[in-house]
Amino acid sequence: xxxxxxxxxxxxxxxxxNNDMIEKTLLEMxxxxxxxxxxxxxxxxxxxxxxxxxxxxxxxxxxxNHSKKGLISPGQFIPIAEESGLILPIGLWVLxxxxxxxxxxxxxxxxxxxxxxxxxxxxxxxxxxxxxxxGVLQRTGLDPAYLNIEITESMTTDVQYSQKILQRLHDExxxxxxxxxxxxxxxxxxxxxxxITHLKIDQIFLQDLSSSNTAIIKTIIELAKNLSIDxxxxxxxxxxxxxxxxxxxxxxxxxxxYSRPLPKLEVEKLLQTIPV
Length: 276
Ligand code: C2E
Ligand code: MG
Ligand code: MG
Ligand code: MG
Fold this sequence. Notes:
Layout: H1 2-34, E1 40-49, E2 55-66, E3 70-72, H2 74-84, H3 87-107, E4 114-118, H4 121-125, H5 129-140, E5 147-152, H6 159-171, E6 175-181, E7 198-201, H7 204-207, H8 211-226, E8 230-234, H9 239-247, E9 252-254, E10 262-263, H10 264-272
Parallel strand pairs: 2-4, 4-5, 5-6, 6-7, 7-8, 8-9
Antiparallel strand pairs: 1-2, 1-9, 1-10, 2-3
One magnesium ion binds next to strand 6.
Protein name: EAL domain-containing protein
Domain EAL: 24-275
């Protein structure tokens, strides 16, 4: 009996694996058409200066509006895009759309804000990465100082390569953030070698302000201050978290407490209420 059970568990397991793979392959096929079908959209989440309360920027976050399945989160489709290589055309579309949008808001005379764009490792490692970014800036006419590229710690394991790329971005006047900082096990010594402008504390530390998490957040903020890097806390949901961050003199905040990621028109409405 035990043997039979083992067999059926095994069969059930592989069946499930197969279903997962089929589901993924189908999604990948749909994702291939998503851009041309206009199904990918950007939402923008505001970021605020903690001291002045002023809006400093937005982070562009991709949304996939699947014709049959409805809204699919980036947590679901970005990994598929990365595995299949589709992240290259999608990432370029995101970059171009975000920069075009930032430029358009400036031309409408709204508050000039920084546009943060997430970049995946496949894009970062692409030999044409710098040329792609510069091409987008040229086509859209956005001042490089208002583009902020978000990379993650795990993308910087090849220190020499990362240093070269980050220096090129820096020389062009483009800002760079390290996203989800604190969970990537990377050496801290590289931070001083990389010309980055912002550190984004991983929201996992804020979710539960235990003594070890508060110690980690304090340490990250102190480290960033010593290196003259601005710190952004993301995932701020409660007043308690905000007060904690403000006593530590965290520079900027982003989170549901202030605003969810918003569609373009809602950002425009928000910006129209802010004096320039
Ligand atoms: P991320 O870059 O760390 O973005 C922050 C995520 O936290 C977003 O999830 C945002 O909606 C969410 N968030 C913001 N404030 C709060 C809060 O107060 N509480 C909670 N619980 N969550 C909050 P989202 O939009 O689902 O994106 C997830 C991840 O997908 C992003 O994490 C990023 O790694 C990736 N992603 C999104 N858009 C793109 C893109 O265009 N390109 C690439 N390569 N990755 C993207
Ligand atoms: Mg990000
Ligand atoms: Mg993050
Ligand atoms: Mg994240």
